[in-house]
Design goal:
This protein is an alpha/beta fold. It folds into 2 domains: 209 residues, Glucose-6-phosphate isomerase like protein, domain 1 (Rossmann fold, 3-Layer(aba) Sandwich), CATH 3.40.50; 180 residues, 3-Layer(aba) Sandwich (Rossmann fold), CATH 3.40.50. The chain has 17 helices and 10 strands. The strands form 2 sheets. A 5-stranded mixed sheet has the order 1-10-9-7-8, with helices on both faces. Strands 3-2-4-5-6 form a 5-stranded parallel sheet, with helices on both faces. α4 runs parallel beside α10. The chain starts with a strand and ends with a helix. Bound molecules: 5-phosphoarabinonic acid. The site of 5-phosphoarabinonic acid has 15 residues, from loops.
Length: 428
């Protein structure tokens, strides 16, 4: 379901994808013989997940969908970005403004900003409120602080017994402060599997519960991921787009010294898919003083802000366009009698077609400017294709990380700021 076109990278002499190395990396991944092999649960997830828990997610999500007017989803990093990415892609980035069934959804605990919290507290006032707090470790400061505040709010509003029915925790099966609290208070809990790291966890309860509570069909999401997994674990770059993507970006990095990859997205809806992708690749590959820095743009808006640099700044960039072939809504340009704006040459043309021309024009310009380009696309922006894209990017990330000879499944660097912050805050 995911298509990749790497022609725009192959035009650059010196960027030859090393498919033998990519296949070896894939073998390391599928045989579980590489660094971080205790965190490969995501590779089998679309076929091998806890069906009872999946059914429980759907029941809990249905209850929230039907009874909540506001759902506050508390989490950060891998416990946040995937759900937001899927919800924005499949509903709209304006999901709280467009008329639809189901609760308004607020993501919190993804920063340290009292203003955000105060705003959401006032927005949910008087609304039927549910909270899903998500933290694998159960100890991360940002979500823990937000949960402290929203737990108090929900208990004050409904009393402890009813609050316990409105708070749902997604955390480790046994350890962490959140799990202990949930057991003491009797909150419903969902498990973040031991063998899946935060940034690979969108297809676990971490992502699935808020996504389902937003009214999105998680069966289809999993089906799309399962279909994509069938091709992304194959040993043949002609069939497997993940092998092609991983091998090409590593060729551009290792062969041509392109140190930054821009994921250029078509439209606002997939802005957060790019945010999710940035964590996936940045946290997986950025270690041992190595790694491609993942950046993103939304086109065509960012051509009017970042376009100059991409065209003409430091030649350290590669670019991957991400788009969907079929628009969900077709909007045609109308003809006008006076043609006062001179745009009648576009009359009758559909927006997606205009964007296709823009993307090809941009790609040519950027390549002429020395930026190797790839194109990743899926036929439509729907549950199955988003599931497929998630699996594609995850598989390619594992392969690419092993090609770069790092452990793609740890994140030791994330701890450094915490040590300093806790020392300054006087944590014992
Ligand atoms: O990918 C990761 O491991 C991190 O981004 C974590 O997801 C993030 O730090 C949140 O951690 P936790 O779920 O333990 O609160």
């Amino acid at each position: 379901m995911v298509n990749i076109n790497i022609d725009g990278a192959l035009c650059f002499p010196g960027a030859r994808p090393d498919y033998e190395a990519a296949k070896a990396a894939l073998k390391t991944l599928t045989e579980g013989t590489g660094a971080g092999n205790a965190f490969l649960g995501w590779t089998k997830l679309p076929f091998d997940y806890d069906k009872d828990e999946f059914a429980r997610i759907k029941t809990c999500a249905k209850n929230i969908y039907e009874n909540a007017e506001a759902l506050v989803v508390i989490g950060i990093g891998g416990s946040y970005l995937g759900a937001r990415a899927v919800i924005e892609a499949l509903l709209s980035p304006r999901y709280n403004e467009i008329p639809r069934k189901g609760p308004k959804i607020y993501f919190l605990g993804n920063g340290i900003n009292g203003e955000d919290l105060a705003q959401v507290l006032s927005l949910v006032e008087g609304k039927s409120l549910y909270v899903n707090v998500i933290s694998k470790s159960g100890t991360t400061l940002e979500p823990a602080l937000a949960f402290r505040i929203f737990r108090e709010k929900i208990e004050k509003t409904y009393g402890k017994a009813e609050a316990a029915k409105r708070i749902v925790c997604t955390t480790d099966k046994a350890k962490g402060a959140l799990k202990s609290l949930a057991d003491t208070e009797g909150y419903e809990c969902f498990v973040v599997p031991d063998d899946i790291g935060g940034r690979y966890s969108v297809l676990t309860p971490v992502g699935l519960l808020p996504i389902a509570a937003a009214g999105i069909d998680i069966d289809k999401l999993m089906e799309g991921a399962a279909k994509e997994a069938e091709v992304c674990l194959k040993d043949d770059p002609e069939i497997n787009p993940a092998l092609k993507y991983a091998a090409t970006r590593q060729a551009l990095y290792q062969g041509l010294g392109k140190k930054i990859e821009i994921l250029s997205c078509h439209g606002e809806s997939i802005r957060f898919m790019a945010e999710w992708w940035k964590q996936l690749y940045g946290e997986s590959e950025g270690k041992d003083h190595l790694g491609i820095f993942p950046a993103s743009c939304v086109y065509t808006a960012d051509l009017h802000s970042m376009g100059q640099y991409i065209q003409d700044g430091e030649r350290i960039l590669m670019e991957t366009f991400l788009s969907f072939d079929e628009p969900r809504v077709k909007v045609e340009i109308p003809a006008t009698k006076d043609n006062g704006d001179g745009l009648n040459y576009l009359a009758g043309m559909e927006y997606r077609k205009i964007y296709a021309a823009a993307q090809q024009g941009v790609k040519k310009a950027h390549m002429d400017g020395g930026v190797p380009c790839m194109e990743v696309s899926a036929p439509a922006l729907d549950e199955e294709n988003i599931g497929a894209l998630i699996y594609f990017f995850e598989a390619a990330c594992g392969i690419s990380g092993y090609m770069q000879k790092v452990n793609p499944f740890n994140q030791p660097g994330v701890e450094e700021y915490k040590k300093n912050m806790f020392a300054l805050l006087g944590k014992k």
